[in-house]
């Protein structure tokens, strides 16, 4: 039987990992604590960056009406000369992208619902 770690886990059971040094595993050995702390810090930062990005995206997502409104403002702006055709083109192109993404996600959602109702469990074709 290989040497197992002599520490206990949070539930009070003995750790079942293989001992690394001094009868302790890599997760329990104090020598590796700075490394573990750094990994926890990085993990925490990555999680909070991701959640900040998600909140910001949710706040900035536009409804179809809002997109339509921006396109209308750009059209009028070009006609009265307050917006350059270049800016209006950029607005039009972003609006097309937003509509395409929305359509794709709606189709994906409807497909998933249909698959679920049909009892399709094969996920080979899913991302
Ligand atoms: Zn251990």
How many β-strand runs? Answer: 0
**Which molecules are bound in this entry?**
zinc ion
Can you write the helix and strand succession as a string? HHH
User: How does the overall form come out from the CA principal axes?
Assistant: elongated
* Most strands sheet: none
State the helicity in percent bands: 55-70%
Number of domains: 2
Q: Calculate the mean pLDDT score and round it.
A: 88
Percentage of residues in strands: under 5%
The radius of gyration computed from the alpha-carbon positions, rounded to a whole number of angstroms, is 27 Å
Note the gap between the termini.
43 Å
- Helix tally equals 3
Classify the secondary structure makeup into a structural class: mainly alpha
Poorly predicted segments = none
Structure commentary:
The structure is a single chain. This protein has 127 residues and is mainly α. The chain has 2 domains: 60 residues, no CATH class; 57 residues. The protein is built from 3 helices and no strands. The longest helix has 34 residues. It starts with 32 loop residues before the first helix and ends in a 9-residue tail after the last helix. The structure holds zinc ion. Zinc ion binds next to loops.
Summarize the structure.
With 127 residues, this protein is mainly alpha-helical. The protein is 62% helix and 0% strand.
Task: Set down the secondary structure blueprint.
Layout (H helix, E strand, L loop, with lengths): L32 H28 L3 H17 L4 H34 L9
């Amino acid at each position: 039987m290989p040497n197992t770690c002599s520490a206990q886990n949070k539930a009070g059971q003995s750790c079942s990992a293989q001992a690394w040094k001094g009868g302790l595993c890599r997760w329990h050995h104090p020598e590796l604590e700075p490394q573990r702390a750094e990994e926890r810090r990085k993990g925490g930062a990555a999680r909070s960056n991701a959640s900040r990005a998600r909140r910001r995206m949710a706040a900035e997502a536009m409804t179809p009406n809002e997109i339509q409104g921006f396109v209308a403002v750009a059209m009028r702006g070009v006609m009265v000369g307050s917006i350059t055709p270049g800016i209006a083109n950029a607005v039009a192109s972003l609006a097309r992208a937003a509509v395409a993404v929305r359509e794709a996600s709606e189709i994906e959602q409807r497909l998933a619902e249909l698959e679920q109702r049909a009892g399709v469990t094969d996920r080979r074709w899913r991302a």
